[in-house]
C-alpha cells in the first residue's frame, strides 16, 4: 500500500513486530508467555540466544512470499537458509519425500512397480501445459478430478497420501474431487522450489520469522509509512457503517480504510475451528532425518485416522534461533476432538526425548464483513500449515477487496525498479 502511494500508519498493541506470528526472545519471555513457573534451566544456555516462533512456517523457495520479498527487495534485510529435508510419515516411520524422477526410483516409500508408475506421473506433471493439449494425455485441467488422474497412473493409497499432502500440501482430502489443475500446479511449485536449492523446497530466515515483518516495516518507511509499536487500540470508530478512524490513548488517527486481524473486531468475524501448536525444545535432531539441523515432517491424515494432517517443523541453533546444540520442533494441526494433545501424540513420539514443551490452542477466525461498505478489511487467522502459501492467498484477497484490482507481481516489480533506479541515479 505504501508502494502504491497510500499514506500508511501501522499501529500494534504489542511491543514487538509480527503479532500472533512473532518470534519470542529472550527465552525467559517464552516461559512467562506460557505461564511456566521459574526460569529456564542453565542447560538451555543464554536466554538471548533464543528466537522462538509462535507460529511455525517455512517459505516455498519458488512461492508467492519469496516473490513478494524479491520484488519489494525486502530480501536486503534478511538472510535465509535452506531447510535440509522434507519427510513424510508412513506406518509409524518417516521417509524422505521423493519429488524428482531420480528420487522416486530410489525411494524406500514404494515398491518397484509403484516407483515406475509414480515416475511416469511426475513426468506427466512436469510436462503438463494447460495451453498445449498434446501434453494433457486426455486429462481436462478444468474438469477431470484429481482422483481420476491418480487412477490413470494406478497409484496406491500411500502414494496418493504423500503426493496430495507432502507435495501438493493439501490439508485434507477434499481436493480429490476438485478439478486437477490446482493440484498439478501445486506439485509443479514444489518441484520448482526444490530445483532452486536441492535439499528441500523450503527456506527459513536466520533469527526467526519475526525478521519478516521487520523487513516490511523498513520497506514501508522508505515509502513514508509510519510504524507504532506498544500502541493500545481503544476503539475502532465507525460512522454510518463506514470506518473513519482509530482511537488510541485519547487521540484519534483518521483513516479511509483499515486492515486488522480478527482479534481487533471480533463482532465482524466468526470462529471456524482451532489449531493446537506445541513448541518442543530438544538437544538432538529428529531420528531418521540423517541428523538434519532443520526439516519438515508431514503426517498425512489417513496415516493416523484423522481428517487433517499433522505438521512438524524443526529448526535449530544453525538458524540463530536456539542456544548451541539445541533444536526447536513445533508440532501443529487442526483440532478435531476434546483432547487436542492426544491428537498430536504420533508427532510428539517422533521427537522424544523432549526437554520442554509449550502448548497453545488458538481459535481460528474468518471475517464475516468483506469490507465493501465498512472499508474494514479483516485477515483470516493463521492455519496449521507450515508454509506461507495460504497466508499469501489471504493477503492477495485483502488487496483485491481494498483496491478492486488483483495484486500484480509484474506491476510491483516495475514500480520498484523505477524507484530504486531513480535512487541509484541520484
Automatic annotation (TrEMBL):
Topological type in the membrane: Peripheral membrane protein
Cellular location(s): Cytoplasm; Golgi apparatus, trans-Golgi network; Membrane
Primary location group: cytoplasm
GO molecular function: GTPase activator activity
Function: GDP-dissociation inhibitor preventing the GDP to GTP exchange of most Rab proteins. By keeping these small GTPases in their inactive GDP-bound form regulates intracellular membrane trafficking. Negatively regulates protein transport to the cilium and ciliogenesis through the inhibition of RAB8A.
Subunit structure: Interacts with RHOH. Interacts with the GDP-bound inactive forms of RAB3A, RAB3B, RAB3C, RAB5A, RAB5B, RAB5C, RAB8A, RAB8B, RAB10, RAB12, RAB35, and RAB43; binds RAB3D to a lesser extent. Interacts with DZIP1; this interaction negatively regulates the interaction of GDI2 with GDP-bound RAB8A.
Name used for this protein in its record: Rab GDP dissociation inhibitor
Organism (species): Coilia grayii (Gray's grenadier anchovy)
Amino acid at each position: 500500500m505504501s508502494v502504491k502511494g497510500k499514506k500508511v500508519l501501522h499501529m500494534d498493541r504489542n511491543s514487538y513486530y509480527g503479532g500472533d506470528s512473532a518470534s519470542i526472545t529472550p527465552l525467559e519471555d517464552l516461559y512467562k508467555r506460557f505461564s511456566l513457573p521459574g526460569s529456564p534451566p542453565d542447560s538451555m544456555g543464554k536466554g538471548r540466544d533464543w528466537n522462538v516462533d509462535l507460529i511455525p512456517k517455512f517459505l516455498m523457495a519458488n512461492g508467492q512470499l519469496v516473490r513478494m520479498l524479491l520484488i519489494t527487495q525486502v530480501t536486503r534485510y534478511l538472510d535465509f537458509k535452506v531447510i535440509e529435508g522434507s519427510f513424510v510419515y508412513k506406518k509409524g516411520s518417516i521417509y524422505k519425500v521423493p519429488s524428482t524422477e531420480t528420487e522416486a526410483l530410489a525411494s524406500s516409500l514404494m515398491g518397484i512397480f509403484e516407483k515406475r508408475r509414480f515416475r511416469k506421473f511426475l513426468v506427466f506433471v512436469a510436462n503438463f501445459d494447460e495451453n498445449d493439449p498434446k501434453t494433457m494425455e486426455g486429462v481436462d485441467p478444468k474438469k477431470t478430478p484429481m482422483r481420476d488422474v491418480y487412477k490413470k497412473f494406478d497409484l496406491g493409497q500411500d502414494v496418493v497420501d504423500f503426493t496430495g499432502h507432502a507435495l501438493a500440501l493439501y490439508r485434507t482430502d477434499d481436493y480429490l474431487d476438485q478439478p486437477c489443475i490446482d493440484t498439478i500446479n501445486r506439485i509443479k511449485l514444489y518441484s520448482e522450489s526444490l530445483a532452486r536449492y536441492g535439499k528441500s523446497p523450503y527456506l527459513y530466515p536466520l533469527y526467526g520469522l519475526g525478521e519478516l515483518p521487520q523487513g516490511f516495516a523498513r520497506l514501508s518507511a522508505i515509502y513514508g509509512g509510519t510504524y507504532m509499536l506498544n500502541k493500545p487500540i481503544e476503539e475502532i470508530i465507525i460512522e454510518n457503517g463506514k470506518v473513519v478512524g482509530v482511537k488510541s490513548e485519547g487521540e484519534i488517527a483518521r483513516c479511509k480504510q483499515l486492515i486488522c486481524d480478527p482479534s481487533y473486531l471480533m463482532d465482524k468475524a466468526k470462529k471456524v475451528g482451532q489449531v493446537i501448536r506445541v513448541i518442543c525444545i530438544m538437544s538432538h535432531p529428529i531420528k531418521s532425518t540423517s541428523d538434519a539441523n532443520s526439516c519438515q515432517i508431514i503426517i498425512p491424515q489417513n496415516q493416523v485416522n484423522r481428517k487433517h494432517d499433522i505438521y512438524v517443523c524443526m529448526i535449530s541453533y544453525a538458524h540463530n534461533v536456539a542456544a548451541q546444540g539445541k533444536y526447536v520442533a513445533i508440532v501443529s494441526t487442526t483440532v478435531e476432538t476434546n483432547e487436542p494433545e492426544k491428537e498430536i501424540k504420533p508427532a510428539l513420539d517422533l521427537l522424544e526425548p523432549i526437554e520442554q514443551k509449550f502448548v497453545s490452542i488458538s481459535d481460528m477466525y474468518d471475517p464475516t464483513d468483506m469490507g465493501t461498505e465498512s472499508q474494514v478489511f479483516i485477515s483470516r487467522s493463521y492455519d496449521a500449515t507450515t508454509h506461507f502459501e495460504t497466508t499469501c492467498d489471504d493477503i492477495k484477497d485483502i488487496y483485491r477487496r481494498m483496491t478492486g484490482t488483483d495484486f500484480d507481481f509484474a506491476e510491483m516489480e516495475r514500480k520498484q525498479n523505477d524507484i530504486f533506479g531513480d535512487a541509484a541515479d541520484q
